[in-house]
Amino acid sequence: MSETSREHVKAPNPPVVVGIDGSASALAAASWAAAGCARHRAPLRLVHGYMVPANAYPEMLIIADETRRAMEEQARAWLTEAAAAAKAAAPEVEITTAVVSCGGAGLLIDESATARLVVVGSRGHGSVTGLLVGSTAIALAAHGRCPVVVVRGTAAPGGPVVVGVDGSPTSEAAVAFAFEEASARGAGLVAVMTSQDFTVDSAYNISRMATDWAQVEGDGRRLLAQRLAGWQEKYPDVEVLREVVRDRPARALMRYGVDAQLLVVGSHGRGGFAGMVLGSTSQALVHHAPCPLAIVRPAG
User: How far is CA 60 from the centre of its chain?
Assistant: First the structure.
């Protein structure tokens, strides 16, 4: 199946979109996404984008059509392989595929406008050995218009969903996504707030934390309870563990993520600069999360 353009209108039951590039990481992403589609009764859309090299050399014009046909043939083979992996993970899920003449990151950002979720592997087909995460995953995490999942690390079977909470608009969207995922998975939810999320970085507060952590922790727990109250009422089936810890957000979330099946964060938190597209915590986790990572933007 080949496509060149799509209208940015979400369907009543939007698909989960997976970027496929022939890598083992992309196959893992397809299998992970298929299992999620089964839980949410959503269709799965596997896409591959390619760009034919172009420059001023006349010989390139001669072989352009041949190159395009070869690239499309390779793309279809990769999509067939990914569809088989997805079908093995969730036989009941409806799967469609598309080959699009568009760069990988640009295609997935475009797809995110009409998707429920966009999923990518942590390493692309062309990744340099030792590179922690592919450039497509970084670009999508920064600019995607729907929640983005980077399938990396190891999901702990039966583990909880872990969400970072700081009270910012992106944090609220992440909490909503985390509750929905925990409910669909029949999993518990661990909501993590760190000391940096609810104190002002001042000499007074640093001193206060050093001498009266119990009071600071109590303040944090009350704030965390307020942030979660409405969502606990909406999802009474989800057992919630509230954790207030004295640590840097990324480091704390990586620690809790070791035993999690999914880690969820906002695209940027309370400390993000105006206009920042990807905050320091979410950026660090894209590179180092020990389990699949969901990055959630606020609606609008």
Answer: 38
Name every residue whose Cβ is closer than 8 Å to that of residue 73 and which is 6 or more positions away in sequence. none
Q: Which pLDDT tens digits describe the chain residue by residue (300 residues)?
A: 444 344 566 778 999 999 999 999 999 999 999 999 999 999 999 999 887 766 555 555 556 778 888 889 999 999 999 999 999 999 999 999 999 988 768 899 999 999 999 999 987 654 433 333 457 777 887 888 999 999 999 999 999 999 999 877 668 899 999 999 999 999 999 999 987 655 545 555 555 555 577 877 888 888 888 889 899 999 999 999 999 998 889 999 999 999 999 999 988 655 443 333 457 888 889 889 999 999 998 765
Strands of the sheet with 44-50, listed across from one edge: 2-3, 95-101, 44-50, 16-19, 117-121, 148-151, 293-296, 262-266, 161-164, 189-194, 240-245
Backbone angles phi and psi of 65, in degrees to 5: -65, -40
Long-range CB contact pairs, 253-256, < 8 A, 24+: 253/162, 253/164, 253/192, 253/281, 253/285, 253/289, 254/285, 254/288, 254/289, 254/290, 256/162, 256/190, 256/192
78 in Cβ contact with 21 (< 8 Å): yes
Closest CA to 189 of 241, 231, 254: 241
Structure tokens at 91: 């036989």
Q: Tell me where in the chain the CATH 3.40.50.12370 domain(s) lie.
A: 2-151, 161-296
Please tell me the class of the 161-296 domain.
alpha beta
Query: How far is the C-alpha of 65 from the C-alpha of 50, rounded, in Å?
Result: 13
Domain boundaries 2-151, corresponding CATH code = 3.40.50.12370
